[in-house]
Automatic annotation (TrEMBL):
Keyword match Cytoplasm: no
Keywords from the named record: DNA-binding, Transcription, Transcription regulation
Annotated source species: Scleromatobacter humisilvae
Protein name, entry field: TetR/AcrR family transcriptional regulator
UniProt keyword Transport present: no
Residues of the HTH tetR-type domain: 17-77
DNA-binding region: 40-59
SUPFAM superfamilies associated with the record: Homeodomain-like, Tetracyclin repressor-like, C-terminal domain
GO molecular function: DNA-binding transcription factor activity; transcription cis-regulatory region binding
Origin superkingdom: Bacteria
InterPro entries: Homeodomain-like_sf, HTH-type_TetR-like_transc_reg, HTH_TetR, Tet_transcr_reg_TetR-rel_C_sf, TetR_C
Amino acid sequence: MTTALNRAIPRPGGRSARVQAAVHKATLDLLAQDGRAALTVPLIAARAGVTPSTIYRRWGELADLLADVAVERLRPDGDPADTGSVAGDLQAWVEQYRDEMSSDVGLGMMLDVLSARNGALAEGKPPVPSQCAAFTASQIEIIIARGARRGEAVPEVDAVMDTVASPIVYRALFSTAPMTPEHAQALLSACLKTARKVKPAA
């Protein structure tokens, strides 16, 4: 059930982490204060206490910085809720995921991710959208691994990604009507019908 998508995306350390944290905070503060239209790299640099060249060297275009900020905001803070069953865990996760991706904030973050001109923000890192897919897959994998350890029948990670998570994102980005909670749960119910018993990972 492990896929190429659910490899962990490491956070930077040391001075690099401090610079990233300062620039990200400055970006979020200015977005909240003045809005996206007024945002510029020199303004962010001044707010963060770094030079504009530092930002250009690390992130390149403003769009790539905004994508990096969005990726960090999309990174899960912890494991998904444990309700005691794989069906309950996935229902709770899907409800939260649909709410987040269908919100104005979630849509804005997805658009920032897709607007990244360079794709990958550092050599050796996967493309920005793939990092977001990895976060989603890793949450699903945690839920499915729990279910497998309990001896439950579980769906494949890719099945949940392809038949539940992907339609939620597609509807949020391209439809005038975001997916309803009922539609999301119907997709999950269909996905759960593909569940089967598997040997838990060691």
